[in-house]
Inverse folding.
């Protein structure tokens, strides 16, 4: 930490050397202060933007400039005539008041004269990217990291105000709707003109005043003039040691009539453009514009085979292929067609060593695993939007998701016994989702919204385990005369689901409205499974007992009606609501049918207080009824993995979920300070929990409604302060959970407290090298009453980029990890050093790149995890050092 403060002092001293302060008040012609007026200072000699500021609510502004220098000071405010002054600084601070005269004109007319670094227009923040970049940036994510209040997280997703951006647009057209990673990783930095952050975003303008959209944030990318109506992009290819290769063409075309984006990639250097994790979290932009909370949680979406995931996007070996296409076309001003297609194929080898401690017995299991995965993913979407007027909008979407997953695992487990196990899994699920939404404004007081969604899905997971030791003695009637136990399991699941929601909005005054909502869910699922043993003579031994087979049909129905009231009293907005539900569950298995009916009243409350244009606090409370799908109702035994059997429970009922959330956001343009925090408390009653019988390392699980209440609380906060070109940041995240589970017929209380902290310091000089340093600490504290463990990860990091000798750019990032536990049973230090050196002459389309990954040749990394039955600490093997030479051609 001492070194951190030394670097902080050096950077701040560079920033404040030989500077003077110019301050004053910006008012209109009658002396009223102008809030968020823009002030920029252009160095007359270099013609570069050297400083900028924003006035506060009192019209006060302040900027720091070099002494003995001549500047052009430019003042502007939306709807007022801009003013420009020539000023030569000396060695004294200057008081400089400015009066602007009203002259209605739009912002674009002002910006023809000069570019304002940051502009706030209601719920929209506009960043002029040239004011923040230094020329070392290659992709959109590099630019976003330099914008106040915007960041790209470790998963590659864009976040604003701590909330994930779910929609990215380019020139107002969707870019792979439902995900921000593809935009962050692929849009070239040199094509950007502006980044618009659209807060409280809705795609249906008619509903903007009657719905709550505070969690909806979108980004719109504005392109430079030379990138419109022209093809642009880049084609890169590279070769490296150990037969490494990388090929990455991408092309873009944007015009008012249509747009087209083509992304491709093939490499074996560990860069997965679209991972399995991305696939399952990819929404495809499939949601309506009205309040999506209906008080019911019922998910029928598959989560895949539960394949092993890479850690920090690294593995022992990754070979990836990727192709994607995104388009938009306007047959007329009233009709818009959009769509995309994504294909990804990845072969991943994951090698890990895990120490697993079982909570109930303190038994230690050491597991050595090597996984080979082949995953081919495909997503395609087509959308049509017809909007003949501001009063009517109709949308249709169809989304196809399909994938082929295959995993081969070799596992050596050592505990009370030693066993060598081969596992094979594969499946080819297909899901087709369709939606049709209609929004109709009858008149100034009445709005109708109708949203319909249909989903059809099939899944066919297959599991095989080949092992030396007989698992689950006396439970499954295996043939014990065989050389190996070759266990096979087949499953087939079909899902048909229909969701309907109708909303009527009555605007009773300019500040109040009523919302009557009604709708329902209709779901039908069928599930079949069987287990058999493959014998040495290639014959199958079928286990025909009902205990080892499933033939289940499950139906779920939800009918609801609700009333919401929204009112705005000055700066305070409230939105209470009440929903009445009638639920029906029906399952048929084991020769009989069980039908249950439930009636529940569920409240909801939302409040928002707007302190100022860019500062607010929100409170959100809701109660949700949570239901499970067919997978937890089917009572026939299933293998989850080599040491876990699962049997469902057809007597399950719903769980009650209370959620309370408080969030605060402040974006102070005057002081260049960005603050947000989010605190939440959750309580689950009759929670759907695991009940397990454990013998050694073997587990037999089922799902029950817990008699105990589970509680969790979390807090996350972020603070950023900019001092000229220096940005200081801090972040904290705390998560506490107190849960109860049943292990060997006894209630077991488990607590976990995970907390992480970040302190960072970085520069954003335009004509000088830039440095960011930071220090992360993560603490994982697990306690089960009889067993406790605390794991620590200390992670200082450094990022450096510099343009030098006119044509060279060097980018370096370094991460150091110190991983250990309180009991001194685990200790490991490792680091990752990556560097990128590029050469490109001015106005040349060719770029030469030397890229090096893992220069320290680190071979592993660590992770810990916890659940109700055990906690793990794992070590993963990663790719060794490699160096790749790339050649890139910019179109």
């Amino acid at each position: 930490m001492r070194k951190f403060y030394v670097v902080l002092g050096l950077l701040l001293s560079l920033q404040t050397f030989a500077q003077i302060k110019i301050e004053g008040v910006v008012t209109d012609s009658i002396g009223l202060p102008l809030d968020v007026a823009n002030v920029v200072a252009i160095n007359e000699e270099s013609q570069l933007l050297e400083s900028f500021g924003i006035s506060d609510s009192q019209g006060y502004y302040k900027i720091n400039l070099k002494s003995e220098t001549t500047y052009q000071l430019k003042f502007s405010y939306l709807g007022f005539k801009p003013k420009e002054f020539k000023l030569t600084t000396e060695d004294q601070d200057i008081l400089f008041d400015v009066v602007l005269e009203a002259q209605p004109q739009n912002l674009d007319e002002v910006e023809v004269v000069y570019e304002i670094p940051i502009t706030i227009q209601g719920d929209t923040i506009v960043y002029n990217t040239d004011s923040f970049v230094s020329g070392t940036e290659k992709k959109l994510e590099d630019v976003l990291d330099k914008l106040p209040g915007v960041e790209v997280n470790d998963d590659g997703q864009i976040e604003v105000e701590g909330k994930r951006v779910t929609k990215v647009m380019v020139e107002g057209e969707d870019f792979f709707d439902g995900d921000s990673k593809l935009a962050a990783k692929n849009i070239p930095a040199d094509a950007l003109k502006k980044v618009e952050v659209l807060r409280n975003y809705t795609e249906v303008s008619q509903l903007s005043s009657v719905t709550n959209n505070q969690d909806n944030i979108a980004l719109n990318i504005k392109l430079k003039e030379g990138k419109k109506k022209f093809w642009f992009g880049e084609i890169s290819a590279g070769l490296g040691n150990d037969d490494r290769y990388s090929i990455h063409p991408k092309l873009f075309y944007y015009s008012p009539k249509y747009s087209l984006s083509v992304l491709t990639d093939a490499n074996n250097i560990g860069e997965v453009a679209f991972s399995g994790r991305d696939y399952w979290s990819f929404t495809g932009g499939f949601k309506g514009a009205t309040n999506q909370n209906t008080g019911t949680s019922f998910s029928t979406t598959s989560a895949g085979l539960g394949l092993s995931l890479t850690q920090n996007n690294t593995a022992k070996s990754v070979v990836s292929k990727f192709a994607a296409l995104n388009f938009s076309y306007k047959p007329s001003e009233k009709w818009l067609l959009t769509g995309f297609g994504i294909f990804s194929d990845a072969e991943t080898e994951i090698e890990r060593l895990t120490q697993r401690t079982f909570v109930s017995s303190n038994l230690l299991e050491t597991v050595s695993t090597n996984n080979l995965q082949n995953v081919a993913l495909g997503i395609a979407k087509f959308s049509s939007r017809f909007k003949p007027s501001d009063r009517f909008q109709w949308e249709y979407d169809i989304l196809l998701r399909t994938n082929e997953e295959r995993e081969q695992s070799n596992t050596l487990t050592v505990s009370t016994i030693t066993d060598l196990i081969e596992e094979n899994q594969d499946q080819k699920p297909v899901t087709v989702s369709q939606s049709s939404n209609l929004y109709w404004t009858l008149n100034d007081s009445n709005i109708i919204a109708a949203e319909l969604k249909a989903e059809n899905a099939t899944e066919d997971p297959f599991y095989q385990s080949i092992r030396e030791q007989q698992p689950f003695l006396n439970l499954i009637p295996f043939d014990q005369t065989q050389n190996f136990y070759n266990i096979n399991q087949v499953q087939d699941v079909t899902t048909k689901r229909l969701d309907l929601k109708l909303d009527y909005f009555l605007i009773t005054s300019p500040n109040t409205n009523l919302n009557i909502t009604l709708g329902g869910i209709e779901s039908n699922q069928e599930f079949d499974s069987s287990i058999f043993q493959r014998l040495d003579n290639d014959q199958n031994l079928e286990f025909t007992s009902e205990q080892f087979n499933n033939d289940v049909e499950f139906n779920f129905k939800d009918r609801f009606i609700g009333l919401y009231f929204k009112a705005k009293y000055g700066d305070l907005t409230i939105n209470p609501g009440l929903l009445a539900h009638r639920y029906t569950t029906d399952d048929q298995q084991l020769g009989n049918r069980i039908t249950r009916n439930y009636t529940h009243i569920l409240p909801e409350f939302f409040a928002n207080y707007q302190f100022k244009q860019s500062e607010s606090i929100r409170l959100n409370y809701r109660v949700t009824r949570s239901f499970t799908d067919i997978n937890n109702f089917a009572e026939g035994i299933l293998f989850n993995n080599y040491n876990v059997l699962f049997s469902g429970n057809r007597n399950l009922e719903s769980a009650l979920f209370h959620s309370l959330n408080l969030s605060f956001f402040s974006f102070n343009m005057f002081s260049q300070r960005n603050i947000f925090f989010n605190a939440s408390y959750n309580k689950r009653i009759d929670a759907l929990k695991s009940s397990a019988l454990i013998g050694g390392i073997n587990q037999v699980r089922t799902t029950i409604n817990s008699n105990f209440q589970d509680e969790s609380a979390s807090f996350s906060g972020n603070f950023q302060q900019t001092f000229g070109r220096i940005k200081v940041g801090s972040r904290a995240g705390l998560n506490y959970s107190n849960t109860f589970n049943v292990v060997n017929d006894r209630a077991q209380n488990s607590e976990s407290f995970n907390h992480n902290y970040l302190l960072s310091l970085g520069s954003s000089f335009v004509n000088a090298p830039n440095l960011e340093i930071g220090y992360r600490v993560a603490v994982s504290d697990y306690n089960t009453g009889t067993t406790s463990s605390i794991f620590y990860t200390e992670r200082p990091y450094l990022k450096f980029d510099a343009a030098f000798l006119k044509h060279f750019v060097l980018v370096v990032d370094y991460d150091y990890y110190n991983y250990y536990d309180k009991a001194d049973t685990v200790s490991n230090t490792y680091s990752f050093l990556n560097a990128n050196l590029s050469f490109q002459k001015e106005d040349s389309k060719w770029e030469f790149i030397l890229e090096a990954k893992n220069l320290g040749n680190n071979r592993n990394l660590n992770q810990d995890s916890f659940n109700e039955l055990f906690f793990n600490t794992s070590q993963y093997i990663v790719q060794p050092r490699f160096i790749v030479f790339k050649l890139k051609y910019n179109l």
About this structure: The two ends are 46 Å apart (CA to CA). The chain has five helices and 54 strands. The domain at 20-232 is CATH 2.60.40.1120 (Immunoglobulin-like).
